[in-house]
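Tokenise the fold.
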Amino acid sequence: MVCYRMSNEDPRGLFKNSFPMNLKENKLVKYFIEAKTELEKVVWPTRKETIAYTLIVIAVSVGTAAFLAGIDFGLNQLLELTINR
């Protein structure tokens, strides 16, 4: 392991000023503080709205699956008619 000194005068100056001591200046801490501030501004949907949106997503997903299954079935039948001639 190689260690470097930050200053030639002070042999105990190892890692001196290497890490910010003020938590507000730490980029990671600053990120979480800003994220918390932004999350406090969010207007969250009510339980009723969440249930309604969930049901819409499920209905659209089932409808899309049925539509794609119908197309798949139709193309499969068309291919079988073409091959069996």
User: Anything to note?
Assistant: The mean pLDDT is 84.
